Structure formats: C-alpha cells, structure tokens
C-alpha cells in the first residue's frame, strides 16, 4: 500500500488538493475530535498582571478573532483611569451587580469564569486602563497571544 501523500497541482504548479492514505486521514480525524473535546482546564493557560491584579485565562475561538475567558479567582484593579472605554466601565458595573466579580479591598475578584469578547477587553477590564490583549496575555513560556499566532488574519 502506498503511504505517500500526493498533491494535485494546477497548470501553474500550485497545490490545489491532497490525497492521503486512509489510515493517515483517520488519524487526523481522530486528533481533530480530541482537540474539540478538550475542556477549558486542558487548554493552554495565559496570565496577565497589572499593579496588584493577577488574572489567568485562555483564548477561545478562531485564531484571527478569539474571545478570552478569565478564570475564577482572578483579580482585577478596581480603579479606572479616565481614558477607560465607557463600555468597560459599564461592564464592570454589570458584573459587580450580577456577582461575577466582587469588591475585595482595592481589587475586584472573579467569583466564576467569564468570557470576554476579546483578549483586549479582558486585559482592559483587569488593568483598569487601555491595553492590547494580544500583547498583555502571556503563557508560561513567556509567549504573548500575538507570538502564539492569535490575532493574525487567516490566509485564504
């Protein structure tokens, strides 16, 4: 049996399709199912510190436009600089009102995990000022979300 991967190319030599041996295809499908079944705790964790706030979480969704989930027991600065977007200030008030975060001294503490629309929104919430989430959140190896491939437009 031929175990080689073969490519179908157009008249210009550009790869248009691939022909895989069935056992390799089945292995790839199996890996894809395992990745989809990963629980949040099994996802790569990222952290961000600003002043006294320490937050942990993970990106969720497509690489080019991920959401970001901040984990329970993470903390955020309770002060807002004047330049903080009104939407972040309103979100802080809403999360306080519903109990997702509680005041703890000069910090806010997450009582449960919360999914933000973007890593930047999560970083702004935690810091209390404007931040680029792709640059703020880093993994245990020291790589930022941007360095890990998030935020890049997919090349289709």
From TrEMBL:
It comes from the Bacteria. Pfam families: DUF4357 (PF14267). Residues 92-145 form the DUF4357 domain. This is DUF4357 domain-containing protein.
């Amino acid at each position: 049996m031929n175990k080689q991967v073969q490519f179908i190319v157009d008249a210009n030599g550009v790869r248009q399709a691939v022909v895989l041996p069935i056992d390799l295809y089945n292995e790839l499908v199996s890996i894809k199912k395992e990745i989809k079944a990963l629980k949040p705790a099994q996802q790569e964790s990222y952290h961000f510190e600003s002043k006294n706030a320490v937050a942990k979480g993970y990106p969720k969704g497509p690489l080019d436009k991920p959401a970001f989930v901040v984990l329970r027991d993470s903390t955020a600065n309770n002060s807002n600089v004047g330049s903080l977007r009104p939407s972040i200030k309103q979100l802080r008030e809403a999360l306080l009102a519903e109990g997702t975060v509680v005041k703890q001294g000069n910090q806010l503490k997450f009582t449960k995990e919360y999914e933000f629309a973007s890593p930047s929104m999560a970083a702004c919430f935690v810091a209390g000022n404007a931040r680029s989430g792709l640059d703020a959140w880093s993994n245990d190896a020291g790589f930022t979300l941007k360095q890990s491939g998030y935020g890049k437009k997919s090349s289709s």
